[in-house]
Structure prediction request, 529 residues.
Amino acid sequence: MTEISKLIPIRVLAVLAFAAAACSVEAGNQIPCVEDFSCPNDYPVCVSGKCTAGTSSAKASVAVVGAEGHAATDFLSGTVRVIVSARASSGVQSVALAAGSTNFTASTPAATPPLYAFDVNTTTLTDGDRQLTATLTAGDATTATANGTLHVDNANPVITSFTVAGGTSTTITAGTTTVISASFTGTSATATISDGSGGSVGIATGGSLLVSPDVLTSYSLRVTSRSGVSVQSGTTGQPSNVSVAVVGPASFTGNASVSPSSIQQGQNGSFTFTAPTFGSGMTAVVKDAAGATKGSTTTSGGQITVTIPTTDSSTTELDYTVVISNAATVPDSVSIPLVVHVGVPPNIMTFGTSTTITSGSSAALQATFVGGNGVITPGNIPITSGGTVVVAPTALTTYTLTVTNPTTSVSVSTGSGGQPANVTITVVAQPVINEFSCSTVHVTSGDAIALSIKTTGVAGNAPVTVACTQGSIAGFTIPLVSGNGSSNPNPTAPTVTSTSTCTFTATVQNAASTSVFSRVVVTVEPQPS
Prediction:
């Protein structure tokens, strides 16, 4: 900027020079100087920055010392106070400072001669290295000039971006971090990020910073050029400040549930999911096995209705997850798995047929079914599909088959809902022939043979077969009324040549087709000759 690096050393040098002028000392080549005028009378010549003995030829001297408080290499902006040193043996009439055609006014307060101060508004100069010219007019009207250089840079740095998590705001879970990023322009510009608490941290353009506040915090970015020109986020024309909100981690008490917790294959309708208890600002989401969201609620303990999906014979369960998330931009979450079991719909294909049995005997019940376990009532008799169970009721009994799916607890029963009919077992008494007789057991060929029968528990009539040792008699049936009956017409004894026999066998049966028989033997004699 000038030949002098700092204003403060110049002032000290001037004091030393004046002190030396007031009191001669043996200090040749020891007193620092800038020019002859800064040396004491005993050592009036400034050589290589040191006062030495000799004769000074200087009548007037002027120098641009530099911008107050700045090094010669500093870039400057705004208005700076430039110091000029000026002396003349005939006295100083005036000192002026200009840059080209621009003249600068003296500073208030003024500097103490031989120093002169000027207010230089660098904004009136073009950015870059600009030459200043100091002009001294001595008391004898002689003049002297000196040049100095200012490095001018009034350009504002530019904040091109200032984001947190890629935006202007974000919400994090307590204890986690997020990224603040910044980009800006400006040669040798520097930047700091502040959180409003008095602290700040530097950041380079294109750089990022991890932050983890405990409470809602706003961050600002200040960018300063090499000459001290600053811009700040949140001000007119600049990107906004960024903010980070903080929420607690996701949590819940109790548990989630789903109703129904089991369904049949092919069942339609909807599930009702009930969320557990959770804190304010959290959300409960129901997701299926593929991770697709099926519904949500922001109400603690709230319900979520989800349509039952299509199921087929290969579906045995449906997997769901209730996810509790907080309001963070990248949510913290906890998951609760729920399983809905899917069962085959029970169905009965066959279940025996109603029948009649004789008291003391048994009947076989057969069944085929799918989708569950079979039980026959009364008696709670288990049966497998395709299997057979034997029952021996003592009275009329109606049997019902119930098939229950163990997964869904859905059941179907015979006798209803389009299922096969119940099976009724009718129990009848044993058939009994109380009496089977002939009016005579000794007849002659050609005689009529009168037979009668008395029965109980019999269904139908009493067929009779006849076996004779000579000749033959055709079989016949005795009609029964209330279990009793007589032959009509009566059979005729066969023609025999010698004494023979005919055996009559009557057979009866009950409604269960259980049969009994009784015999009567009749002796047949030949006709007398």
User: Anything to note?
Assistant: The chain has five domains: 7-152, 158-247, 252-343, 347-428, 432-525.
